[in-house]
Every structure is written in structure tokens, then in C-alpha cells.
Amino acid sequence: HNPILAGLPVTVFERMSALARETGAINLGQGFPDDPGPLAVRKKAAEAVLEGSNQYPPMLGLAELRRAIVEHYARWQGVSLDAEREVMVTSGATEAIAASLFGLIEPGDEVVLFQPIYDAYLPLVRRAGGVPRFVTLRPPDWRLDEAAIRAALSPRTKAVLFNNPLNPTGTVFSREDLETLARALADSDAVLIADEVWEHVTFDGGAHVSALGVEGLADRAVKIGSAGKIFSMTGWKVGFVCAPPDILSTLARAHQFLTFTTPPNLQSAVAFGLAQEDEWIMDMRARLEAKRDRFSAGLTAVGFAPLPSAGTYFVNVDLSALGVADDAAFCERLVREAGVASIPVSTFYAEDAVTTVARFCFAKEDATLDEAVRRLEALR
Ligand code: GLN
């Protein structure tokens, strides 16, 4: 037993994907699409490797990509950012979160986290020396409560880490929700680390409201985005941060020593993609929305109770409707006996866990989803 690893558990995604490989199960655990991503963007990346520079790009990211990010948020959120001083490219959103925490947190500083908590947050907060404080969200609505947020804040709160749309629940928080958050934070100096990687993976015509566009949040927000999610290529690990200049320069200090840069060919391909992405985004949403509906209907037809999903790659199932009280045991049985991997939502809680919800990734071929439903039916 190595005490140094105590704060660094094996991620549930690695564990479940390994189990899926071992047992030959359909992997609806770890969230990634089996879509190859837009061909023109992939071609651009290939060309850039053959024709472009493959040396270290600028530490803050290629100028063309930072400009494309600024134009993107001018179009989608109506905000104006300074490409030179308010944008930084990172090697995935996870690096952006690590750079935010390592840059901002001194040992003993408090960080507010919303349960269910995306799996990387808590280990990173702890390794940064932060003290986590939890706000707990509950099914079926997972909504924010101003009093609960206020109760988690203290004069030592350095940051609030907020994921919208929320993985694992598929909740898209509205402008009213963000205003609730702004009201709760009104008397606090905390930085809002806004992980918005799912911003474009939203359904039913619902538009994502960024913290960048909300009064009381924008001037304290570290907004994190992900090209991997925008273009359905999660392996690219091209993320970015938008933040006020003083905060951004602090994050950049941490970024220098984490990864320093991100592959230049992927950066120029993302810059190219962002300049003409609107059609791709609409198309991705339509395809994923159809998959969400197909999978949810399939689940319902075989007796499962899917919860609403307004965004992300995930549909959650309410296991309490089946009389199941232990999601971890259920998901274990599901992968071993039915051959379908999923993620127990209780693993996203540090305390006071909800133990009756399982998360399924529906960003898969229709035939894969249909086969998964058949296997689930056989188990019941
Ligand atoms: N974001 C992915 C998910 O939620 C997992 C990424 C990872 O495996 N680290 O499933």
C-alpha cells in the first residue's frame, strides 16, 4: 500500500473499460462516441503534420486557434474576449482543470464541488492541497439550491468547480440556475471554474448559457471548453480556457509545467473546424438526440426507467424503480452477466451518495444500442 496514492484512486472509467474488454461486454461505460469526427477536420490535421511545423507551438496556443475561439464565443455567446490575454489552449479540458487548481489553490484553500462530481475533480483538488466542500444534487431534477451553495461557502473558499452541462446526469443548467449561482456567490471572492465541455452536446433545441455571459459570474469565470467534445474526437485532447487576464496568467504558470503545449497539427485543425463548425454542431446534436431517444425508448420498452437527458452522451437509469438499492453491485452484475458496461453514479459522490442510478453512454451505433437493450432485457 502506497500512502502517496491514497488521493489518487483508479478512475472508474479505466476500471469499467478494462472489465468490458476482459468480458467482451458492450462498453456503454466510458463516454466516447464511435463516430469518427468530421472528415475535413481530420484531413486538416493530417495535412498539418505533413506540411506544417511539428515543433513546440507557443505556450498559450497557436494564435489562429485562440482567435478562432474568440470568434466562436462572439457568435455563440455574444461575448467579446481578448485572444492575446484571455485565452489559453490546453491538452484537453482535464489539463485545464488541473492548471486551474494547481494555479489557484494554496494548501488549505477550500473548493466547492457539486455532487455528483466528475471523477477527475476531487483527486486533483486534493493533490493541489485543497479542502473540498460539497453541494449535493439529487435525482430526478439535480437542480441548484441557493441556500445549499451558500452553506458550502466560507471565507476560505478559493474556487467553485461547476460542470454545465453536468456529467454524469445530463442536466443542462438554465440561465435562471446560473443566476442562482451568481446570487449565492455575490458575497464571495471565489473563482468559478466553469467546466463547459458539453456546451454543444445539448438536445431539444436548448441553448447552453455560458458563465461567460452571466453577470456576477463572467468576471470571476474560468471557462473551460473542449474540441474533443465539439468535434466528437475525445482522443484529441485539445481543450481551452477563457478567463480574465490576471486569472489566465496564473493558470498559464501552472500550464507551463504540466504540458507546456498541445500538438500543433491538432490545434490548427481545430482552428479550421471552429471557423466552419456550426453545421457540424447542428448535425451532431440531431444524430445524438435521435440516439438518446432510441436508447431511452428501448430501455423503457424492456422495463427500465430512464431519467431525462438534456445534454452530454449519457442517459441515466433510475434503478429504484427496479427495487435496486446498490448501483455498484448492479453495474458489476450487468457487465458480467448481461455483457453491458455502465457506470454507477454513486462513484461520483464523496459522501451521502445517491446509490440508485446507473449511467449509460448512448453515443454509439444504433445496432450497438439495440443489442445492449436486448441484453438488458435478457437480464431482467
Ligand atoms: N469524460 C468521459 C466520461 O465521462 C471519461 C474520460 C476518461 O476516461 N477520463 O465517461
TrEMBL record:
Does the entry feature the keyword Transferase, yes or no?
yes
So what EC number does this one have?
Answer: 2.6.1.1
Per UniProt, residues of the Aminotransferase class I/classII large domain are 25-376
The alphabetical list of record keywords is: Aminotransferase, Pyridoxal phosphate, Transferase
> What is the enzyme's class at the highest EC level?
transferase
Q: Does the keyword Zinc apply?
A: no
GO MF annotations for this entry? kynurenine-oxoglutarate transaminase activity; L-aspartate:2-oxoglutarate aminotransferase activity; pyridoxal phosphate binding
Q: What GO cellular component entries does it have? A: cytoplasm
On the tree of life, the source organism's domain of life is Bacteria
Classification via NCBIfam families? PRK08912.1 (NF006488)
The entry's family comment says: Belongs to the class-I pyridoxal-phosphate-dependent aminotransferase family.
- Provide the protein name: aspartate transaminase
Q: Which organism is it from?
A: Hansschlegelia zhihuaiae
